[in-house]
């Protein structure tokens, strides 16, 4: 059993997108990025995966500069190459191009001492679907509150 430790989670992804498929990807990172990620200093903002020339890149994710990086700190907004098999890249790139889907980052985690990223093939939700999700969440919260009051 492989031990995993979650570093960061993209809460907005499940709210804004309907997630269709999930995949684990490695990342090509610099040393100061790894240190900053281990501290949990990351913001998903408007992050997504871009496919260029048979490669996948993570774009729009902000990894804060590490304070003790010395003379060569990293660029917080740079594109980071994802480490995936060519068949996986080609399959998802074709689906993104044809079906109007997107690939969003879900969470960063440590697995056997290496930083991994869970990505998902996603379709954007309509405003109506988002409102319904908010309504359902509020209803569950009210039910839980009433049950707690009865006990």
Provide a concise account of the structure shown.
This protein is an alpha+beta fold and 151 residues long. It has helices spanning 11-16, 31-38, 86-99, 127-150; strands at residues 4-9, 17-27, 42-43, 48-52, 55-59, 62-63, 80-83, 102-111, 114-124.
Helix-strand blueprint:
Blueprint (H helix, E strand, L loop, with lengths): L3 E6 L1 H6 E11 L3 H8 L3 E2 L4 E5 L2 E5 L2 E2 L16 E4 L2 H14 L2 E10 L2 E11 L2 H24 L1
Antiparallel strand pairs: 1-8, 2-7, 2-9, 3-6, 4-5, 5-7, 8-9
Describe the structure.
This protein has 151 residues and is α+β, with helices and mostly antiparallel strands. It has one domain (4-125): Small Protein B, Chain: A. It is built from four helices and nine strands; from the N terminus they run E-H-E-H-E-E-E-E-E-H-E-E-H. The protein has helices spanning 11-16, 31-38, 86-99, 127-150, and strands spanning 4-9, 17-27, 42-43, 48-52, 55-59, 62-63, 80-83, 102-111, 114-124. Strands 1-8-9-2-7-5-4 form a seven-stranded antiparallel beta sheet. A two-stranded antiparallel sheet has the order 3-6. The protein is globular. 20% of the residues are buried. The mean pLDDT is 89.
